[in-house]
């Protein structure tokens, strides 16, 4: 990384950890060592007007037949300044020489541990073996000499021309690393206990120098807490034989720290991101497009926040939404609701909460929708959904979506674990129903046919229990399945819900059981907004026949264009919707897309996903695809991510499959679950608990870095 947007990426075919990276001097090449002991040579080469990082060769060091793996397990790598060879230190203490770029082992130049120990005092050899090679360092002034450090503290200066040891240094602590001084007269050894020692390289003195030579008495120390380890550094490490450093870069286990050595007190340089890459796992993401300038220059409960340029102290108003509505037969078995703080609370400048809505029962909030123009926020849980007026700070309505069989939804967060046995029972129950219906279609049959059919259905039962089924038949689900009332999506729309002559504000909700609820809203005009209440009345209820979870709801205007975000229309960032022609409703479930006419809500067309592949919708969004050749043309399509990790582009409003891209490995469950789409055909997903991979589906907005190294 040299600057924002400057990036070169290479991906190993092997799914193994990268242990070490080393540059080949002056060659635009580097070598990587993986935890499977394989070495890979990479080159930066220009292609199509940009430099690409390409893998040139791969190699695994192998020992003689019958030798243990430790004999050739690489622990230290030294690319020599001649750019002709690599020195590989191993667990056995031997050092192998590998030719570049062919990766051919030069066996006659191997440095064995037996040869190294020839000049080491007998008492030291008797007490300690060489063990593994911990560090290899080339002499800064003499390329024919290398420094070899062994894990138990032995350090040897090796003459490559004469193939012998010229100096040995006997350390008493476990070695971690070695560093040369610029002129090659001294080197520093770092040890496991946090100590470091300076060693002079001369014919008459091979004893370590006292630490006072490194940190003079009276000098002030600065201790920097890295969270994962501590670094202590002197305020004055500069002398004639060293460079004049301006900054120090420290790579800790979980973060990269840069320390300003030119400013008094050695402060840390603030990184250009909000938090350390690995300090905490990312659990939820949302992409926002067309952010207003004010925002740029300044989420078991719902917090409504507003932007304030100054610090403020105020009381956060509190409201409660009882989603069960005192219905009989339901009893919450989970944790109690969180207690609210009394009195005013001080908040820093930025987004400051001004009202808190607590749901009863206090289950996880599963969906949210905010309409900033109407001053309304909708929220859903596994028990139902509600609408809150955050301008008047009052609850408009709540709707319980629980089915009589949804007892598991009342047992708290652990109920999903408890429902495993029930899920298996339901799987076998569906299979038995299929078996009975199959017999009826065949009209009986002899005993052998029935036995054969039973064996087949038993095999189907095992496939049904797979965590990631790839050949599951799509069947209608029973209303008795658990969590049917789980609210998956909420959507605000100004559309024709009651009749075709008048449009009105509306709220739509989709559940895990394939049910869609539609409510007409009456929002008072601005001059009477604080005097009259917002009113809501249920207008429609749609039940999908296959009862698959509803993951998306969308209204298309008279031009078959998705309704724009109201805030974008208010800031002239989007065109106003067409309210003259008839509107259409698109309902996306896990297993199909279906278009209805409005306001009659009659089925118009649908698209089913491929049943043979067990394909299910995981994420869906409307993406605007602009032309890469002209600014006058763009189209809106659906971008759909499935449980198989592929992305499908589907046209609107005709629901025609345009293209399919393989994007995420189907085994990468966390990557699929974390995927976020943008409005312009790009996306992000987690490749580790704290790192995003970015991709683009649009030819207009390419995310591939186009960088050149001369």
UniProtKB/TrEMBL annotation:
<dbReference type="GO" id="GO:0030864">
    <property type="term" value="C:cortical actin cytoskeleton"/>
</dbReference>
<dbReference type="InterPro" id="IPR036322">
    <property type="entry name" value="WD40_repeat_dom_sf"/>
</dbReference>
<dbReference type="InterPro" id="IPR001680">
    <property type="entry name" value="WD40_rpt"/>
</dbReference>
<dbReference type="GO" id="GO:0005886">
    <property type="term" value="C:plasma membrane"/>
</dbReference>
<keyword id="KW-0268">Exocytosis</keyword>
<feature type="repeat" description="WD">
    <location>
        <begin position="11"/>
        <end position="45"/>
    </location>
</feature>
<dbReference type="GO" id="GO:0051294">
    <property type="term" value="P:establishment of spindle orientation"/>
</dbReference>
<dbReference type="GO" id="GO:0032878">
    <property type="term" value="P:regulation of establishment or maintenance of cell polarity"/>
</dbReference>
<dbReference type="GO" id="GO:0005096">
    <property type="term" value="F:GTPase activator activity"/>
</dbReference>
<dbReference type="GO" id="GO:0006887">
    <property type="term" value="P:exocytosis"/>
</dbReference>
<keyword id="KW-0853">WD repeat</keyword>
<dbReference type="Pfam" id="PF08366">
    <property type="entry name" value="LLGL"/>
</dbReference>
<dbReference type="GO" id="GO:0030866">
    <property type="term" value="P:cortical actin cytoskeleton organization"/>
</dbReference>
<protein>
    <submittedName>
        <fullName>Lethal(2) giant larvae protein 2</fullName>
    </submittedName>
</protein>
<feature type="domain" description="Lethal giant larvae homologue 2">
    <location>
        <begin position="239"/>
        <end position="267"/>
    </location>
</feature>
<dbReference type="GO" id="GO:0045159">
    <property type="term" value="F:myosin II binding"/>
</dbReference>
<dbReference type="InterPro" id="IPR013577">
    <property type="entry name" value="LLGL2"/>
</dbReference>
<dbReference type="InterPro" id="IPR015943">
    <property type="entry name" value="WD40/YVTN_repeat-like_dom_sf"/>
</dbReference>
<comment type="similarity">
    <text>Belongs to the WD repeat L(2)GL family.</text>
</comment>
<dbReference type="GO" id="GO:0006893">
    <property type="term" value="P:Golgi to plasma membrane transport"/>
</dbReference>
<dbReference type="GO" id="GO:0008593">
    <property type="term" value="P:regulation of Notch signaling pathway"/>
</dbReference>
């Amino acid at each position: 990384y040299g600057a924002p947007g400057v990036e070169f990426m290479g991906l190993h075919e092997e799914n193994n950890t990268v242990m070490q990276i080393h540059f080949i001097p002056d060659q635009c090449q580097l070598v990587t060592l993986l935890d499977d002991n394989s070495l890979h040579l990479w080159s930066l080469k220009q292609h199509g007007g940009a430099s690409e990082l390409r893998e040139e060769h791969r190699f695994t060091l192998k020992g003689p037949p019958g030798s243990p793996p430790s004999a050739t397990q690489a622990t230290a790598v030294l690319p020599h300044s001649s750019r002709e060879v690599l020195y590989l230190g191993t667990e056995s203490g031997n050092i192998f020489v590998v030719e570049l770029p062919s990766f051919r082992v030069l066996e006659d130049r191997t440095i064995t541990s037996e040869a190294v120990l020839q000049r080491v005092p007998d008492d030291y050899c008797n007490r300690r073996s060489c063990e593994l090679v911990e560090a290899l360092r080339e002499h800064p002034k003499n390329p024919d000499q290398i420094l070899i450090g062994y894990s138990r503290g032995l350090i040897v200066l090796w003459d490559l021309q004469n193939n012998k040891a010229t100096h040995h240094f006997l350390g008493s602590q476990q070695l971690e690393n070695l560093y040369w001084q610029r002129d090659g007269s001294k080197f520093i050894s770092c040890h496991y206990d946090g100590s470091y020692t300076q060693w002079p390289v001369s014919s008459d003195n091979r004893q370590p120098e006292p630490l006072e030579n490194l940190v003079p008495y009276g000098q002030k120390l600065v201790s920097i807490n890295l969270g994962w380890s501590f670094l202590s550094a002197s305020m004055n490490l500069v002398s004639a034989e060293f460079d004049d450093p301006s900054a120090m870069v420290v790579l800790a286990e979980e973060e990269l720290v840069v320390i300003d050595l030119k400013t008094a007190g050695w402060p840390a340089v603030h990184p250009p991101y909000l938090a350390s890459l690995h300090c905490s796992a990312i659990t939820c993401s949302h992409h926002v497009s067309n952010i207003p300038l004010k925002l740029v220059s300044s989420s078991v409960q719902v917090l409504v926040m507003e932007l304030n340029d100054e610090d403020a102290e105020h009381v956060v108003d509190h409201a409660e939404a009882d989603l069960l509505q005192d219905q009989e037969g339901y009893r919450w078995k989970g944790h109690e609701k969180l207690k609210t703080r009394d009195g005013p609370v001080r908040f820093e400048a930025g987004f400051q909460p001004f009202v808190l809505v607590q749901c009863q029962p206090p289950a996880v909030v599963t969906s949210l929708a905010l309409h900033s123009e109407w001053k309304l926020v909708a929220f859903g849980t596994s028990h139902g959904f509600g609408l809150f007026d955050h301008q008047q700070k009052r609850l408009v309505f709540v709707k319980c979506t629980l089915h009589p069989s949804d007892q598991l939804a009342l047992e708290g967060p652990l109920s999903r674990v408890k429902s495993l046995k029930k899920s298996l029972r339901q799987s076998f129950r569906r299979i038995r129903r299929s078996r009975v219906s199959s017999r009826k279609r065949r009209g009986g049959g002899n005993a052998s046919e029935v036995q054969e059919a039973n064996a087949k259905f038993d095999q189907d039962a095992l496939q049904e229990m797979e965590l990631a089924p790839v050949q599951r038949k799509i069947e209608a689900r029973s209303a008795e399945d658990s969590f049917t009332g789980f609210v998956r999506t909420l959507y605000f729309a100004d559309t024709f819900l009651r009749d075709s002559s008048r449009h009105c504000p509306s709220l739509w909700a989709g559940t895990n059981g394939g049910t869609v609820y539609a409510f007409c809203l009456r929002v008072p005009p601005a001059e009477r907004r604080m005097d009259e209440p917002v009113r809501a009345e249920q207008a429609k209820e749609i039940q999908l026949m296959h009862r698959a979870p509803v993951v998306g709801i969308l209204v298309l205007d008279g031009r078959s264009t998705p309704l724009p975000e109201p805030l974008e229309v208010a800031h002239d960032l989007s065109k106003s919707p067409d309210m003259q022609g008839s509107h259409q409703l698109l309902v996306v479930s896990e297993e199909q897309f279906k278009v209805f006419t409005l306001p009659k809500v009659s089925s118009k067309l649908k698209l089913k996903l491929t049943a043979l592949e067990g394909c299910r919708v995981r994420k869906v969004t409307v993406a605007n695809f602009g032309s890469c050749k002209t600014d006058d043309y763009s189209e809106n399509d659906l971008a759909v991510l499935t449980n198989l990790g592929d992305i499908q582009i589907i046209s609107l409003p005709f629901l025609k499959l345009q293209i399919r891209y393989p994007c995420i490995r189907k085994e990468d469950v966390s990557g699929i679950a974390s995927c976020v789409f943008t409005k312009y055909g790009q996306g992000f997903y987690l490749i580790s608990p704290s790192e995003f991979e970015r991709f683009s589906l649009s030819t207009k907005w390419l995310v591939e870095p186009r960088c050149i190294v001369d």
